[in-house]
Amino acid sequence: MDYLSRTEELILLVVWRLQDDAYGLTIRSLLGELTGSEWSIGAVYSPLKRLARAGFLESWDSDPIEVRGGRSKRCYRLSDKGIRALSAVRTLTETAWAGLTPVPSR
Amino acid sequence: MSIGEPIALRVLAYVLPKDLHHLVGDLSEEHDWFKSEYGPARARSRLLAVILHSLPFLLQQYVLWHAMMWSHHLKTGYRVVSRNMAFSAINVFGLGVSMALCLLVLLFIADQRRYDTFHENADRTYRIVSEYKSPSNVDTEVYATSPSTMGELLLAEGIGMDHAVHVRDGFTGEFIVGDDAVQIPGMFAGPEFLATFDFPMLDGDRESALSAPGSILLTPESATKLFGQGVNPVGQVLVEPGDRTFTVTGIIEANPHSHFRFEALASLSTLTQDPVAGVQIADWRNSMSRSYTYVVLPDDAVGRLQQTLERLRTTAFEDPSGEHRYDAFMLQPLTEINLGDLMANQLGAVMPRVAAFFLAGFGLVIMLIAGFNYVTLTIARGASRFKEIGIRRTMGAEKSSIFLQFIVEAILIALLALGMAAGILIWLLPAFNSLALISFSENQILIDLGKDMWIYGLAIAFTLAVGILAGAYPASRFTRVDPTAVLAGTGSGGTPERGRFRKVVTTAQFAFSIVFVVTSLVMLGQFRHMANTDYGFNREHIVNIALQDVPFDRLKSTLATNPAILRIAGSDKVPGLGSTNGAWLYRTGLADSVNSHHFSVDEEWLEVMGLELLAGRNFDPARATDSTDAVILGASATKSLGFASPVEAVGAVLTVDGHPTSIIGVIADFISASPMVSGDPISVRYRPAEFRYAVVTTVPGGVQDAISGITREWSQLPTVHAPILQVLDDELTDNFIVLIFADMLSIVGVFAFFAVLISCLGLFGMAMYAARHRTREIGIRQALGASHEQVALLLSRETIVMMLIGVGIGTPVAWLLNNFWLSNLSNGIEPSVGIVVWSVLLIAVLAVLTVASQTVRAARSRVVDNLRN
User: What is the dihedral of CA B558, B559, B561, B563, to 10 degrees?
Assistant: First the structure.
């Protein structure tokens, strides 16, 4: 079982959350909303490509779309492997947290 | 791509790999959304911010993509080059040789173009040149010189010139050092010269060094020649043989990249303040031959200067008698003096532009021959690459990628060829520099591999250009290949073998080869003819002694007792060595004067030179009129003057250079100017005052005795000069005209040799591919009973047809071309049919051998092997 980095975990979560509407732009803006800071292109597109190549994500190109200057979208959805990896991370995190109280904020 | 998309996005779309175009789409969508929400200004700044924020990533993607693509192209290119050794070797050799020749020509031209560019004001300095008719000429000619008073007159006009420089050629620079005379020739120039031209001064005051009469500037080399090492030359006094003295006022460095060639510069005031020379130089009518005017002026003054020149032409330089006539004064930019128009009275060493054009033309032809080899061979070989191209296109390779692939291959071959060319150049450059044509005028290619970095740029740029040009045609052809047709097997996407292009190219190569070969053989014939030409006068047992400042009679009486010497004559010119003196002959009733080659001699000369008297008599010193108004003419001169026979001419009265003169005798023609021309009109007069040589005949085999005797006796004469003795036979053997011609012969010969060789290599390559591609056809024909000969003929037939057409086109061209230049030589050979036949045979034999080497192998191969392949 290979573990994901925190960035990868976040990106997979965002792709899942976006469901049918997951492509570069929406992923990057949702990441920005969640973390409260701007994500650079490289910080999003490089892991996306890596995750797709590693089989956590499935990607396909849409038909060219007029508003995008006639360019297609590269859409993503979670593969089975991606879903398993996400739940494994969640299980691991929950197991590790079990019985502990959250650190009080000072 | 939508109109109105920000430029930044369009740039991104252009530079990023196709794989990232969805990213550009995302950015575009975001930008549109921002624009509708917050307006275009915010949208734009937001977009730029995002791009800037992500610049490292974008750059990385760009670099990675291109590095990958190029490494792929290079890898494929390397495989193509290394797996087809024969193909690569043929092309590398052909391109290497022709690139070496072209680079040599390019280096020569680039180096010559540098002349006089080092002066700070080079771009606004001009020389005034004249379209001028001299009293002894019938028509105008363009002269590099201008009237001696031109500069002063122009300055007085106040048209805003910065400088006007008067340079006067003809400073002999002969000085007495100890018991010897040393020569450091140069020019006269005023102080403006130093202000205008940036020759560095190592010592002395730039402002005043050329002001006072009798001032002289030396180059470091000439200072060493005069004073040796370790002496400070500045302030030293130099004495000319005529007792005129010069004071060294400084040291100046000459520059080989200038048309000014000097070992010393003397102040112009030496001339202008001299009682005799000063009067002469003040009159422009007497001083057109050696005065040069250079002006420096702001750009806006050029028009004014031209108007002023035009006005001066019709006022100050108007000669009412019509003897001198100026048709125009022109401004020649300083940097265009070298590699410029041909002109009379050039100063220093100037390479005419036509020479560069000729060399460039030869280079271009040989480059085309090699380049076309590459193109035809690549296309022929490309048949086997159709499948590769088809697959790559289907897998999504762009057309541009296929195109680039072929260009990269061509550039790789060209780079290998450059390596070979560099090797050839190391050998070629000194050979070229030592050509008499180049070394005599000191126009050698002077490049410093350590300093002149531009030559590396030139070589690389040239190589890339060769690669791109050679690769472009095959590349565009293969880009057009239809992948589906290739893969479906319904066609090869075009039939490269049958290309009309290749046939035209091969035919043209044959045509060029025949022209080159015929021309070099004709030149060789002409060279042999000139080397063995009968000059029409004695050349054996004759020594020419330069009189220098020794009176002829004194020398004659000194040598009278020398037992090795038979006779002594006086003359002003050695015939046949390239330069002549002129005299105008005019006979009443004739439309034009005849320009004759003139010799001033004494009564012994005809005998010494062994010239046959056809009619009349020799000069007789006892007759007073023989030294004033008698002339002996050559047979051609009498013919040009309209006399029916030599006998008829004797006794007739002419004007020679305007002076009434009677013809006392007629001699047989001899080669008076150079072995290229014969039958020129010759005139001979008895004028001892003009003598510059004593011509002596020795007893047979006594030349060396005579020379040692003369050298011994010379030392008793009242002169500081060393004796200058020339054996006529040696002088004619090493005739400069013949040497120059030999140089041109070797240039054309080298180009001819390589043109033929490279063409044959191309043929060889094509024959190789043809034999390889048609193995199955050959096998079937063999199986059906075709003989070896029939197969060989089948494979050679096309080449033979192309050769016949090429020779058919090239032969008349070669014939006309060679007839044209030979017709300009009166001592030229008749271009013989034999030469043409031999050339055609040579080319035919070479071509057939080349092709046969492959076809015979194909024909001899085993039927079974051929069918199985």
Answer: 160
Closest CA to B413 of B135, B98, B110, B167: B98
For residue B855, give how far its alpha carbon lies from the nearest alpha carbon of chain A (Å).
55
CA atoms of B72 and B78, how far apart (whole Å): 10
Interface probe with B: pick from A18, A29, A45, most Cβ of B within 10 Å: A45
pLDDT given for residue B493 in this prediction: 45
Residue with the two structure tokens 């010379």:
B714
ipTM of the complex: 0.86
CA distances in angstroms from B519 to A83, B36, B370, B635, listed in the order given:
84, 77, 20, 33
Q: Which residues pair with A77 in a beta bridge?
A: A58
Rg (CA), chain B: 36
Q: Which residues contact B439 (CB under 8 A, 6 or more apart)?
A: B433
Going along chain A from its start, the domains and CATH numbers come out as 6-90 (1.10.10.10)
Which amino acid belongs to residue B96? G
DSSP bridge partners of B143: B130, B344
Cα distance between residue B136 and residue B657, in whole Å: 8
Answer whether B493's CB lies under 8 Å from B788's CB: no
> Which amino acid is residue B650, in one-letter code?
V
- A98-to-A94, A105, B624 alpha-carbon distances in Å: 6, 19, 143
> Nearest chain A Cα to B58, which residue?
A42
E-only strand ranges, B703-751 = 725-727
Q: What is the dihedral of CA B48, B54, B58, B60, to 10 degrees?
A: 150
> CB of B34 within 8 A of CB of A102?
no
- Contact residues, chain B, for A29 at CB < 8 Å: 30
Q: Each residue of B765-783: pLDDT tens digit? A: 888 887 777 777 778 888 8
Could you give the maximum distance between any two Cα atoms of chain B, in Å? 121
Assess contact for B542 and B696: CB atoms under 8 A. yes
Rounded CA separation B576/B539 (Å): 11
Contacts of B131 (CB under 8 A, 6+ apart): B140, B141, B142, B143, B326, B327, B328, B329, B330
Q: What stretches of B541-666 show up as alpha helix (H) in DSSP?
A: 552-559, 605-609, 626-629, 635-640, 646-649
The answer to whether B2 contacts chain A (CB < 8 Å) is: yes
List the beta bridge partners of residue B247.
B215, B237
pTM assigned to the model: 0.79
- Each of the 106 residues of chain A gets a pLDDT tens digit; together they read 567 888 899 999 999 999 888 999 999 999 999 999 888 888 999 999 999 999 999 999 888 888 787 888 899 999 999 999 999 988 988 898 888 877 666 5
- For helices A24-35 and A6-18, the axis angle rounded to 10 degrees is 120
Give the pLDDT score at B129.
94
| Per-residue pLDDT tens over the stretch B775-806 | 777 788 888 888 878 877 877 888 888 889 99
Q: How big is chain B, counted in residues?
A: 869
CB-nearest to A40 from B27, B32, B57 is B57
Which secondary structure element, helix H or strand E, spans residue B167, and what is its range? strand B163-171
Output the six-digit token pair for A64.
């060219």
SS3 B192: helix
Specify the residue for token string 């013949």.
B738
Q: Extract the tokens encoding B774.
A: 């048609």
Which among B5, B13, B29 has CB closest to A25?
B29
Which residue is it, tokens 């734009």?
Answer: B44
Strands B264-267 and B215-218: antiparallel
Distance CA B493, CA B477 (A): 10
β-bridge partners, B774: none
Give the pairing of strands B693-698 and B565-571: antiparallel
Mean pLDDT lowest among B170-179, B386-395, B650-659: B386-395
SS3 label, residue B268:
coil
Biggest distance spanned by C-alpha atoms of chain A: 54
